[in-house]
Amino acid sequence: MSQRSAAEYIRGGQTPFFRLPVAELGSAAPYAGANAVLIGVPYDGAVTYQPGARLGPYHLRRTSALLQAFHPIHRCDVFRMIQVLDGGNVAFPPFDAAVVRQHVQAEVAAIVEARAAPFVVGGDHSVALPAMRAVAAAHGPLAVLHVDAHLDMSGPEVWGEPFHHGAPLRHALLEGLVAPGQLYQVGLRASWGHPEEGALAVAHGARGYPMPVVEARGIEDVAREIRASIGDRPLYVTFDVDAVDPAFAPGTGTPVPGGLTSREALQLLRGMAGARLVGMDVVEVCPALDQADLTCHLGAWLLYEGLALRALGAG
């Protein structure tokens, strides 16, 4: 038997996330019966500093194999409560950003159509926009928990490209993917390109929790406030790993000192227990810049915490 083509190899996803079953990708309904599907997006063509996040899905699959099913805090067996599949990777020619977005949106839409929650593993943060488009098309405007060092409200003024990895939340607001007043931005601390960069979020009623606020109030209090405000709205979590201090997560292309600890990142997600989680992404893990797999292990745990939230919501 000859080798599979490069596209077939990428589509297959290699090592499954969390040692989970793999979707029958050649079937007419590969995601049938699943409550959640993990899908890799090996793309980093929209970064503005250091590339390498395209290798994130491979390394997060590898490190996720260490995790067991039973969540010791929520006291639930995540993979018994819900059926979770590894959907492989989205396969696309990596030379056309618009085509990449189309492929990601179509694959996430297929997952949502199967009544499953997509867990998108990047890749750079630009892949969150097509994922949110597909999820919002099914569930309506979303509550979005955006965990990031950056506002991600940049326009094309610096790079001449409106859809880079520093812009997905800008487009999500402009396209009406986020319900009014339902954007929560936690971990903010990066410098701005100009004084007006935060104006769109303010006009939309977004709630920002920059690091001085997190430090003063504590992450558990912040999580409680966000969870109460979300209520029963459909929740999408977009987690850029550079929200976490580079002392704990060095493997990312745009590190910013002074961020969340790993413990705070996990506590924030655990504080969303009971929310109606309809989708999640973990992005910007750059394995080539990592040390001793610290960032990769954290990324796998963030996905696990999200799957636990999905399991609790299904229960």
Quick recap:
It contains eleven helices and ten strands.
Structural write-up:
- This protein starts with 5 loop residues before the first helix and ends with a helix.
- Helix content is 35%, strand content 17%.
- The protein has a single domain, classed as 3-Layer(aba) Sandwich (Arginase, Chain A), CATH 3.40.800.10.
- By secondary structure, the protein is of the alpha/beta class.
Secondary-structure blueprint of this entry?
Layout: H1 6-12, E1 36-41, H2 56-64, E2 70-71, E3 76-77, H3 78-81, E4 84-89, H4 97-113, E5 117-122, H5 128-139, E6 142-147, H6 168-174, E7 178-186, H7 199-204, E8 207-209, H8 211-217, H9 219-230, E9 234-240, H10 262-270, E10 276-283, H11 294-314
Parallel strand pairs: 1-4, 1-5, 5-10, 6-7, 6-9, 7-8, 9-10
Antiparallel strand pairs: 2-3
Helix pairs in contact: 2-11, 4-5, 5-6, 9-10, 10-11
Identify the notable features of this structure and list them briefly:
315 residues, 8-stranded parallel β-sheet, single chain, globular, alpha/beta, Arginase, Chain A, two-stranded antiparallel ribbon, 11 helices
CATH fold naming: Arginase, Chain A
Instruction: Indicate the radius of gyration in whole angstroms.
Output: 18 Å
Return the domain count. 1
* N-to-C SSE string, H for helix and E for strand: HEHEEHEHEHEHEHEHHEHEH
